[in-house]
Design goal:
Oligomer: heterodimer
Number of helices of chain A: 15
Low-confidence stretches of chain A: none
Structural class of chain A: mainly alpha
Order of helices and strands of chain B: HHHHHHHHHHHEEH
Number of strands of chain B: 2
Shape of chain A: globular
Number of domains of chain B: 1
Largest interface: A-B, 72 and 64 residues
Strand content of chain A: 5-15%
Radius of gyration of chain B: 20 Å
Number of helices of chain B: 12
Number of domains of chain A: 1
Number of strands of chain A: 8
Chain lengths: 460, 347
């Protein structure tokens, strides 16, 4: 049975990591499309409308892959984690079921209207449809975060006679302190992905000297959104999230920071490799006292190291947790630098001639994906060895009757399926980007002309 | 409270079958009735703006089931592990087939998408039918309330059944015929000309097929699980469901012959509702019966969620579903009428 646990964990980790590559762009791009639409109506600029349509095309492909890789997530709670479902269904299924009725219906209904109803709806209602899709995707994110936050920091429950958790307070579940900060932190992360992608495509057009007009529009909005999101990502959301980990998951904090021994005036580690066997960091480069300040706002504060916690409550993959956390924070810092510099050049109106800066912007788009993924791995590996922090251990949560052979069969199936999806996605997105907004505009004009010609013929 | 949630979850699942049922049906007949590119685009256009919303009823039902009966959710999803994951793969393929078809203007790409769309719709219909068959027949639950079914064992409905045995294959074929009819009638109602004619012809053939198969499956069900009759014996009003089924069947054949497309489609809706409601009525209060020992069966009492959660759920669920219905009414009205090919918009 031991290996069934490993297969179940691998399958969930694989499907959820892959899945989240898409929603982060969906949630990050949706508000930007709304802004394009608002600007288009406000400034009566057809080009901005064309920009919105171009991004809607990319949004549609991305949304589809997000939806179809998302369906398995809800089902896997039951298929692979039956004992966990039994234990926690009385609480978290409230959030998951609410996601279904409040977010999925909204998103799916208005996505159809947004993509295919522009002519039928007119500009203002079309903007409303775009807004509803944005709202739907952000509400969806909220309920998923509520679910995860309960697993990180369970509140508002009671344990029933059969040992399972039952909901005791609806509002404490929804307004879990952990959920609120995690939500803001996560949505900011999604915005970073969305705005970096918009800016990167803009840089690509300007650098390749085609459709430059659109390229500049993309750069302006992308950089403006990215600089705000990157700053808010660090402070206050990242800072508050860190404080919650300090308060409620001190073991996780110690492992994340690579702090094996309790110390006062604890240093922050910039680089180093955790050596779990000898319980020390190899090749460390540290800044003294900073960790104490960040966690307890005091130079001399004592931060508990792993040695103060029983070994069986340590996260079971300390190096992975440590690296992912450092990758997330390191990239987050780089994002601020890149976008602050770009915003400065944009303000000075010299950005479009600074090809080296545009190259950096164009090549930077994969990194927000990496940072978001690393952040989620930090959260979920950091929660180990618990499935529900302090209540249910991971090894007590998986399906008792599903053998590792059956689990591996479906894991391999998912891998094959997702590889095909990934190739299709890249192919289709590449086509859209290489066509660009001008191509869409030209096709629209052609259609208009042919439609008018047809109408004339019919009149005659 | 638990009875109410039993009805609400059943209602949502029924809404899923009725709504996504015609998407699947349209998929099944897609390559049969649409001979050229324009016709194929038109068939997809019939369901294009709505299929995604329809599929959401499945997700929302799954969520509601997990919420109201977490113990049932844990048992059934892990017990039906393999077919469920295969259904997920098929749903993915269906989504790709419908949605990505229009993105590349190339005959090979479009043929590929048509094939994926049709094939996955066909298999999904059979899988869903077999799933209902499994629930009606019962599964080998153990004392902890868990089970695991292989895809097939010896194709008999004995104590160690597989997902597929002769009975569940039969219910799978019933579902295939029913959804083919449902989808044909929908496509007929949404199209004109030759496409409409061909869809109606398939509707007629599969309409007669479901008449035959329904009678057959009725006898088979009573033979496999005589206990389904208990509720009908004790509560005579339950016979309303078979009456709805019979009326629906008659309506399908009569209105389709008359060319009254929407009346025929709503008859087929009545048929589906009658079948599913009848099955739910026969099963109540059991959710999943044990073929091993009747005391292991999961029912609405021993697998329900806490009372507080269920009560508060009633409030948010009602608000959410009313909003969802409002979106659907708006969406369907906006895209009402015969589907046309419109160069300006997608698909």
């Amino acid at each position: 049975m031991e290996s069934a646990l490993v297969v179940d964990r691998l399958q969930f980790a694989f499907t959820v990591t892959y899945h989240y590559l898409f929603p982060q762009l969906t949630m990050g791009l949706a508000p930007l499309i709304v802004i394009f639409k608002i600007l288009a109506i406000w400034k009566k600029d057809e080009r901005l409308n064309q920009a919105a349509r171009f991004w809607a095309k990319i949004f549609a492909i991305n949304f589809l892959i997000g939806v179809i890789t998302g369906i398995p997530m809800e089902f896997q709670f039951g298929t692979n984690w039956a004992k966990f479902s039994r234990y926690s269904g009385g609480v978290i299924a409230t959030a998951l079921a609410m996601e279904g009725v409040f977010a999925f219906f909204l998103e799916s209904s208005f996505l159809g209207l947004f993509l295919f109803g522009e002519k039928k709806l007119g500009q203002k209602l079309h903007l409303l449809a775009a807004f509803m899709v944005f709202a739907g995707s952000w509400i969806s994110g909220f309920f998923i975060i509520v679910t995860d936050a309960w697993m990180q920091h369970p509140v508002g429950y009671s344990i029933a006679a059969d040992g399972s958790a039952h909901l005791q307070s609806f509002w404490s579940l929804l307004f879990n302190e952990w959920a609120l900060w995690q939500y803001l932190h996560n949505m900011c992360g999604a915005l970073i992905t969305g705005s970096f992608v918009v800016a990167a495509v803009g840089a690509f057009y300007v650098l390749s000297r085609r459709q430059e007009e659109y390229g500049r529009v993309f750069l302006k909005l992308g950089i403006t959104a990215a600089v705000i999101a990157s700053l808010v990502q660090l402070f206050p959301t990242g800072d508050r999230q860190g404080k919650l980990v300090t308060d409620y998951q001190p073991t996780t904090l110690a492992a994340m920071e690579g702090l094996f021994v309790t110390s006062s005036g604890a240093p922050i580690v910039l680089v180093g490799q955790p050596n779990v066997d000898e319980q020390k960091l190899d090749n460390p480069i540290m800044v003294p006292r900073v960790l104490s300040v960040l966690t307890y706002r005091h130079w001399e504060a004592t931060v508990k190291g792993l040695n103060d916690f029983p070994r069986d409550t340590w996260p079971d993959n300390i190096p992975l947790l440590y690296y992912c956390y450092h990758i997330m924070v390191g990239l987050g810092t780089i994002f601020i630098l890149i976008m602050a510099a770009s915003a400065f050049f944009l303000y000075r109106k010299t950005l479009f001639n600074k090809r080296w800066m545009l190259w950096i912007l164009m090549l930077s788009f994969p990194f927000p994906y990496i940072a978001n993924t690393a952040g989620w791995i930090t959260a979920e590996v950091g929660r180990q060895p618990w499935l529900v922090y302090g209540l249910l251990r991971t090894e007590h949560g998986f399906s008792p009757m599903v053998s590792s052979g059956n689990g591996l069969f479906t894991l391999l199936g998912f891998m094959g399926m997702y590889m095909v999806l990934g190739m299709m996605f890249l192919f289709l997105i590449w086509r859209e980007i290489s066509h660009g907004p001008e191509f869409l505009a030209a096709r629209n004009d052609q259609n208009l002309e042919s439609a008018e010609a047809k109408a004339k013929e019919q009149q005659q | 409270m638990t009875t109410l949630w039993f009805m609400l979850v059943a209602l949502m699942l029924t809404a899923y079958v009725v709504l996504d049922g015609f998407d699947l049906g349209a998929g099944i007949i897609h390559t049969l009735i649409a001979k050229n590119e324009a016709e194929r685009r038109l068939v997809i256009r019939c369901i294009g703006p709505v299929w995604d919303g329809n599929e959401v009823w499945l997700l929302a039902s799954g969520g509601a089931l997990y919420f109201a009966f977490p113990i049932l959710y844990a048992s059934s999803f892990s017990g039906f592990y393999l077919p469920l994951i295969m259904v997920l793969w098929l749903l993915m393929l269906r989504g790709i087939g419908v949605e990505l078809r229009s993105h590349v203007d190339d005959p090979l790409w479009r043929s590929f998408c048509d094939f994926v769309f049709s094939g996955s719709s066909l298999l999904l219909a059979i899988f869903f039918g077999a799933a209902i068959g499994n629930v009606v027949r019962g599964v080998p639950l153990n004392a902890d309330g868990y089970f695991f079914e292989a895809l097939w064992t010896n194709f008999r409905v004995g104590p160690n059944p597989g997902i597929l045995d002769w009975y569940t294959i039969l219910t799978g074929v019933v579902a295939l015929a029913a959804l083919t009819t449902h989808g044909s009638l929908y496509v007929a109602a949404k199209t004109e000309g030759e496409l409409n004619q061909r869809a109606r012809r398939i509707g007629t053939i599969s309409g007669w097929a479901i008449l035959l198969l329904t009678v057959l499956s009725l006898f088979a069900t009573v033979w496999v699980r005589p206990a389904v009759l208990d509720n009908f014996r004790n509560h005579v009003w339950g016979f309303i469901f078979p009456v709805i089924v019979a009326t629906g069947l008659t309506g399908i054949l009569y209105f389709n012959a008359k060319g009254r497309e929407w009346a025929a489609f709503f008859s087929s809706t009545a048929y589906l509702v009658g079948m599913l409601a009848g099955a739910a009525f026969g099963l109540y209060p059991n959710l999943l019966s044990a073929s091993t020992n009747p005391s292991f069966s999961l029912n609405i009492t021993n697998s329900a969620s806490g009372d507080y959660g269920l009560k508060i759920g009633l409030i948010w669920w009602s608000i959410g579903i009313l909003m969802a219905i409002a979106y659907f009414v708006y969406l369907y009205r906006l895209f009402a009428g015969k589907a046309t090919l419109d160069e300006l918009d997608g698909y």
